[in-house]
Amino acid sequence: MDDDEYDDDEGSEQVGNVLRKALVVIVLIGVIIALGTTIVVRALGLNEGSSSGPVGSDSPAETTKPLPTTALPVPDEDEAEDEPEDQIPPKDAKGGGRLQLSVSPVMARPNERINLTGTYRKADNIGLQVQRFEDGKWRNFGVDATVRVGTYETYVMTGQSGEQRFRMFDPATKRGSNVVLVTID
């Protein structure tokens, strides 16, 4: 036998041994992951959520709620009574409930982005206007937002320094949100 043939056989044998060892390691890792997942699932009780119970069990099936028939919930009579009279929207209004506004950051530099986010309960596809309090009156700031499934987001930038008061305004219902204060330094 030539030395070259002997070296080739020895090299391919070494490669085969390395591949077998790698395969054993991969299989062991898989077994460890499967075992660990099973232990965690049982410890957290995640396997107990079947709707019909285990096979051969006498436990009754869990009752499930039917899927909703509307995208937005319909207000209950009791819920409407909890709101102050001036906050109850007209029944035929397209926009629904309470208009809430949050601001971030509350302190900013001139012309820095100020994020306005909020909720408009029971409203969808409603156009809102950003308003700023100037000279004793609420004035449109020239920025709009659209409510999508009860939430909205937009931003403003102003170079006017000092304390600035902003709110969101629904022109259809003539309803304004809570007022947020931003200090521009």
Describe the structure.
This protein folds into two domains: 3-48; 90-184, Immunoglobulin-like (Sandwich). The longest helix is centred in the N-terminal third of the chain and has 42 residues, at 3-44. It has two helices and nine strands. It is α+β, with helices and mostly antiparallel strands. A hairpin with a 4-residue loop joins strand 7 and strand 8. Strands 2, 4, 5, 7, 8 and 9 form a six-stranded mixed β-sheet that branches. The chain has a three-stranded antiparallel β-sheet with strand order 1-3-6, with no helix packed on it.
List the helices and strands and how they pair.
Layout: H1 3-44, H2 77-82, E1 99-104, E2 107-108, E3 114-120, E4 126-134, E5 137-147, E6 151-156, E7 162-170, E8 175-176, E9 180-184
Parallel strand pairs: 2-9
Antiparallel strand pairs: 1-3, 3-6, 4-5, 4-7, 7-8, 7-9
